[in-house]
Design brief:
With 321 residues, the chain is of the alpha/beta class. It contains 9 helices and 13 strands. The longest helix has 25 residues. The two termini are 18 Å apart.
């Protein structure tokens, strides 16, 4: 009997990760590329195809012979799963990603919101579908979440539920990519950290995150470099990370007071690199602001790490196929 394969793709603002999975949700091979959002929709779509074909090549299969591809895409997805309606970190509006990829790949493609898809991977694979009420939050280029309540994913009236990154935590805060001031994402994402560090460097502060003698432009803060700077006692890196932990704790407290989940699972690049430093601070900030009835929650870092998104996307494809 021929083994069935499913391909999961995690499309982010910084990178594209694709993985080939068997029918038991085991990841066989992965491939990764930078997103390069500045290339526009057609350029990024070509890079998605390249990454999928790279993972399939490593596995020794033809993409067209797979059972299908699941994709977690950032932003709001149409109710029929065909269109990315709005992805601020990619500057996409109303793009027909499903049809365009099916035409290129020759197999079925299913779309879901990246954070909801990653939350599905954590819930189904890591926690074996046991929690009835669970929130997964992902800290990366942006911030998003997947919400499970009473055993079902919360999708909302227009499939837009879970955009916790756009909860306003400071109405006088910086402008977010969505156009609103003071969103959680504008205060605590890796993009927000970069903006804070850049402003501090321009004001004359020193940090291990930027070497002015290198001659290279300061245009990004990688999670691994942030971890190394914090471990070395860098005051600026520590301060901005503490702010991220505080705002994340406030966001979690709000969600726990509202939804009363059993588990809050944290993922994304920053959590993968810095969970030992961040989790205690996030937990303290959250519990201090929770109502007593919500404090039984477990706040944990996902063990799936970078594979949460592709695992959930493969499960999405498997469920639909």
């Amino acid at each position: 009997m021929t083994e069935e394969h499913y391909i999961g793709v995690d499309l982010g603002g910084t990178k594209i990760l694709a993985g080939v999975f068997d029918s038991d949700h085991n990841c066989l091979f992965t491939d990764k590329n930078k997103t390069k959002a500045e290339l526009g929709y057609e350029g990024v779509t070509a890079r998605i195809v390249e990454t999928i074909r790279g993972a399939a090549h490593l596995t020794g299969i033809d993409v067209a012979n797979s059972k299908g591809v699941g994709i977690g895409a950032p932003g709001t997805i149409s109710a029929d799963g065909s269109t990315v309606l709005f992805a601020p970190n990619l500057d996409w509006r109303d793009v027909p990603l499903k049809a365009d990829l099916e035409a290129e790949l020759g197999c079925p493609v299913w779309l879901g919101n990246d954070c909801s898809v990653a939350a599905m991977g954590i819930h189904r694979s890591e926690f074996e579908s046991k929690p009835r009420d669970m929130v997964s939050i992902f800290l990366g280029t942006g911030i998003g979440a997947g919400i499970i309540t009473n055993g079902a994913f919360l999708s909302g009236a227009t499939q837009a539920a879970g955009e916790v990154g756009h909860m306003v935590l400071d109405p006088d805060g910086p402008v977010c990519g969505c156009g609103t001031k003071g969103c959680y994402e504008a205060l605590a994402s890796r993009t927000a950290i970069f903006n804070k560090v850049k402003a501090a460097v321009e004001a004359g502060e020193k940090t291990l995150l930027f070497d002015p003698e290198s001659g290279k432009p300061f245009n990004k803060v990688r999670s691994g470099k942030l971890r190394r700077a914090v471990e070395a006692g860098d005051e600026l890196a520590t301060r901005v990370l503490d702010e991220t932990c505080l705002y994340t704790g406030i966001a979690i407290a709000n969600l726990c007071n509202l939804l009363n989940p059993e588990i809050v699972a944290l993922g994304g690049g920053m959590i993968e690199q810095l969970h030992e430093t961040m989790l205690p601070k996030i937990t303290e900030a959250a519990v201090d602001r929770m109502m007593p009835g919500a404090r039984q929650v477990s706040i944990v870092a996902t063990k799936l790490g970078d594979h949460a998104g592709i695992t959930g996307a493969a499960i999405l494809a498997c469920d639909h196929a």
